[in-house]
UniProtKB/TrEMBL annotation:
Belongs to the peptidase S8 family. Residues 144-164 are annotated as: Disordered. The active site is at D197, H241, S408. Residues 191-441 form the Peptidase S8/S53 domain. It holds the Pfam family Peptidase_S8. PANTHER family: CEREVISIN-RELATED, PEPTIDASE S8. Residues 148-157 have a biased composition (Polar residues). SUPFAM superfamilies: Collagen-binding domain, Subtilisin-like. Keywords: Hydrolase, Protease, Serine protease. This is Peptidase S8/S53 domain-containing protein. It comes from Pseudonocardia ailaonensis.
Length: 739
């Protein structure tokens, strides 16, 4: 008997597949909890069975993943032989059957799928496997949930808490914004930072050194003197200067190497070793531009002298090369220099009189708003960044990360910020980047600092002042609440791939979920508070639902809520605040209602005896209850509770007897009947709000049952009440202290 293949259009995995298809543009399908690309299969291109299958199946198109030509600048001597390397292939079959029938014939077990296209794809795979081909679906993996808030660097140092990254520069917040953007918007533009400098800590073959290495291999590099790779070796009076500037610009994060580069989350390095001569700087700009580098850092300054009957500096060649780079969209960043002089009165290159260069001055500390005394200043300085007590990674002179000073280290900070901006909008050129940095920067306090870099404000401006919408929008009202999805681990989440965003301040995200039976509820909200705040609120769709007290805990970044028991029904959660990204998870643990102590009282004859006001001696052999409140349950859908109420006094003056039912999870009907149950006397319906009925003297029967067939808890009270409408008027003159 063939297996049963069921298309489940409203299943959580179907909704997830549709959502991810919309985000990625790929035809994503699902089978159970597995997502895959429809109409596609992965094979080994050297599989012996493949040739025969392709010959008999013209509808199958094979794409092979052969090695491409390495990019310019890669050291070809380090390439390895491809002997023994597996050759991956991808089969395309856009004409796959759009029916579940072929798949059902090939399976041994029942399977739930998202669509007929999913079933058709799997049917083709199953058929190919039956012909002896090693084949698999092109599975879609997960993206990361929530953006990072710490970086594990050397000696437990956390770059996200270093003052040069958390002070006025707001670099740590910019990192979170960029990672949030990537999580919500998908892959970003690949940015490369070229560093023209000297003293890169590499071995003789160009492999980064250190324990762990300060950069991740392989690293693109070029020795401008030898006109070939590698770029290794010390140089000059500060032998490892390039190691410090390159690491500060682009070192990767979370690798315990002692440094986290400002552009390390978005960019890769291209190292150009030079002897600091103008010819090699021109050559370096030429190669960077020709080979597709996006941002160049030059922490070198050359002072121009004016002497003799000739040009003492090749301004035309120099400026022509920089102009060519500018026309091609390259962003060049240079340090202002450490002469303590005003620019352009001090004639430096490329800091002054050079087209397409952003010149960076040095601040007098990680959180300072004033210039360091050594930093050059003046109208040629476009932006300022920390230049004193800046931490860089280890090098051969220091086994630990170290604090340094100089505008040489201000410049790579801004180069890293520029890389973040171009990662978001690759079209930005040097003029646009310079304008954004100046418009979003803060004003210094000493008359020299014109604008200090605010990385987060700059990133936020390029993002258009809002985070990208996540895949669940629009869901900003109760009526637009979207269902939470199963995460495969017993929880409910908005999205199983990537993070969720409150795109702008005041944004709201509404979600809904159903509780099938009484359950314990746990809610967790993790918030990227470095970007912005978020808060949550739970509300039942039925305003009368009796949810037990919700105990809140945690802190702003990790918020929790717990309710011991929530009744069946539909609930909504709203997350508000922003802008920020967050992860939300709801966990439900079934906690069914059990029978109460008054069972079995589901017939008139077995009803619980209530003696409201006994007038004679109490029979010790009779189990009876007196006036009071009792918390009870209707523990099955057909449960009915009866109460035999005796010794009900007749109304006397202002006093009367009553029954009150309330605090119910779902609506209940309360009926006061003749004692034999033959005739109803009065009926009312209540839920969370109480219904109150008069009891019938001298005895009567009370029945409580669900109006919807849903199990519920409720409270019942048998007592007396004063009827204020029949009380005599009070003469206030007779009261103590009266007039």
């Amino acid at each position: 008997m063939p297996a049963r293949v069921e298309i489940v259009p409203d299943a959580p995995f179907t909704l997830l597949a549709e959502e991810q298809a919309g985000l990625s543009g790929l035809p994503i399908a699902a089978a159970g909890t597995t997502l895959f690309v429809a109409d596609t299969a992965l094979v080994n291109a050297d599989d012996p069975a493949l040739a025969g299958i392709l010959a008999s199946r013209p509808d199958l198109v094979l794409e092979t993943f052969d090695l491409p030509e390495p990019p310019p600048g890669v050291d070809r001597s380090r390439l390895r032989s491809t002997e023994g390397m597996p050759r991956l292939g991808r089969l395309r079959f856009p004409g796959a059957a759009q029916s579940v029938a072929p798949l059902a014939d090939l399976l041994d077990e029942d399977l739930a799928v998202s669509s007929a296209r999913a079933a058709g794809t799997l049917a083709v795979l199953a058929d190919l496997a039956a012909q002896g081909l090693r084949v698999s679906p092109d599975v879609v993996g997960t993206l990361p949930a929530l953006p990072p808030s710490s970086s594990s660097e050397q000696n437990g140092s956390d770059a996200y808490r270093r003052p040069e990254f958390t002070g006025p520069t707001q670099i740590a917040r910019a990192w979170q914004l960029v990672d949030a953007y990537r999580s919500l918007n998908g892959p970003m533009a690949a940015v490369q930072i070229g560093v023209i400098d000297s003293g890169f800590w590499l071995d003789a073959t160009g492999i980064p050194l250190g324990s762990p290495p300060w950069l991740r291999a392989p690293v693109q590099q070029w020795d401008l003197a030898a006109d070939r790779p590698p770029a290794s070796g010390a140089a000059g009076p500060t032998p490892w200067h390039g190691t410090g500037t390159a690491a500060l610009a682009v070192a990767p994060h979370d690798d315990m190497a002692g440094i986290a580069g400002v552009g390390g989350t978005v960019a890769t390095p291209f190292l150009f070793r030079c002897d600091r001569s103008v010819s090699q700087i021109i050559r370096g700009v030429q190669l960077c531009t020709a080979w597709g580098v996006d941002v160049i850092n030059i922490s070198i300054s050359m002072q121009v002298g004016h002497f003799g009957p000739f040009d003492s500096f090749p301004d035309d060649d120099f400026n022509d090369m920089f102009s060519w780079a500018r026309r091609n969209g390259v962003v060049i960043v240079a340090s202002a220099g450490n002469d303590g002089a005003e620019l352009p009165d001090l004639d430096l290159r490329p800091q002054t009189r050079t087209p397409g260069v952003i010149t960076v001055g040095g601040l007098n500390g990680p959180a300072a708003t004033t210039a360091m005394p050594e930093s050059n200043y003046g109208v040629s300085v476009d932006i300022w960044a920390p230049g004193r007590d800046v931490r860089i990674g280890p090098d051969p002179t220091s086994a630990k990360s170290q604090k340094v000073a100089g505008t040489s280290y201000s410049s790579p900070i801004v180069a890293g910020v520029a890389a973040m901006l171009k990662a978001i909008d690759f079209r930005l050129d040097v003029d646009a980047v310079q304008q954004i940095l100046q418009e979003t920067g803060w004003v210094g306090t000493d008359g020299r600092v014109t604008r200090g870099v605010d990385a987060a404000a700059a990133v936020w401006k390029v993002m258009g002042g809002r985070l990208p919408d996540d895949g669940r929008e629009p869901n900003n009202s109760p009526g637009a609440a979207v269902p939470l999805l199963t995460d495969g681990a017993g929880g409910l989440v908005p999205n199983t791939i990537g993070s969720i965003a409150l795109s702008a301040r005041g944004d709201q995200d509404w979600y809904r979920f159903d509780v099938a039976e009484f359950s314990t509820l746990d809610v967790t909200l993790d918030v990227a508070t470095g970007i912005g705040p978020a808060f949550w609120r739970l509300e039942p769709e039925d305003p009368n639902a009796a949810v037990s007290t919700l105990r809140l805990g945690g802190d702003d970044a990790h918020q929790t809520g717990h309710a011991n028991r929530v009744p069946p029904g539909r609930y909504r959660i709203v997350v508000s605040g922003g802008p920020t990204v967050y992860d939300l998870r709801v966990a439900l643990t079934p906690r069914p209602i059990s029978a109460d102590d008054f069972e079995d009282n589901d017939t008139p004859g077995t009803g619980t005896l209530i003696q409201l006001q006994p007038t004679g001696p109490i029979d010790p052999h009779v189990i009876a209850q007196g006036p009071g409140t009792y918390d009870l349950t209707l523990d099955t859908s057909s449960d009915v509770d009866y109460f035999r109420v005796e010794d009900v006094p007749r109304p006397s003056g202002h006093r009367k007897s009553l029954v009150m039912v309330g605090n119910a999870d779902s609506p209940v009907e309360v009926t006061v009947m003749t004692y034999d149950g033959s005739r109803p006397l009065r009926t009312g319906t209540g839920g969370h709000d109480a219904v109150v009925l008069n009891l019938e003297p001298p005895k009567c029967l009370v029945r409580v049952r669900s109006t919807t067939g849903v199990r519920t808890r409720y409270s019942i009270t048998f007592d007396f009440m004063v009827d204020v409408t029949v009380l005599p008027p009070i003469d206030v003159k007779t009261l103590p202290g009266g007039p």
